[in-house]
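Q: I'm writing up a methods section and want to include an example of the input and output format. Could you take the sequence below and give the corresponding predicted structure tokens, formatted cleanly so I can copy it straight into the document?
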Amino acid sequence: MTHAENPETPDAPGAAAKAASPALFDRIARRYDLLNHLLSCGTDVLWRRRVARELAAVPHEVVLDLACGTGDQIITILERVPGVRRGVGIDMAGEMLRLGRAKLEARGLADRVLLARGDGQGMPLADDSVDCATIAFGIRNMPDPERCLGEFRRVLRPGGTLAVLEFSLPTNRFLRPLYLAYFRRILPRLGGVISGDAGAYRYLNRTVEAFPRGEDFRRRVAVAGFADVRAIPLSGAIATIYIGVKDG
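A: Here is the clean output for your methods example:
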């Protein structure tokens, strides 16, 4: 059954809603980290560490993190992947970047990371300028994800690695209905109460359920010009890491 055929599946947010999402994330920025850890029971930390572990197998000096938010993924990479000299974080949400800079300062990493406001569909970076690129829970917010994948290919050096960490949905027939009940009914209410913005967490579950996942998204990464693309399910496929290498 497809999303369109399932009357319980929320309608997918359109391009206009996704384009407005930076303002949404700015509104919840101060509670964003707390809610990530609380609503995932701390699993989001383990997922980001798994991304770093996958990247540690290949040398990387310059790492880009798109939709970097408050900096959790780029910080995890800098602290856990040997050989990384510099990081670049790009996000459209100015308040999230401000909080990210404060976290980098507190950890003594500010001199190694440049945070900049920018669009993932037109990154302010030169061609072939980074060794590795990541995006954690951000590509589904892009109005045109395929265009974003093309931008990743443009800024990566030949042979560079792309790692996309994104929510998916459990495939286990017992876990899936329990997860969807939590995701559709409990998470939006709890997130709304803590953040003070119920709309932000209704947007979350709508984008996750509508976004392509698993083999579908793995193919899209390959079509964008990446070779050896792998999909790594995490926590029963609640999230998935997609790893690919810039072809050519």
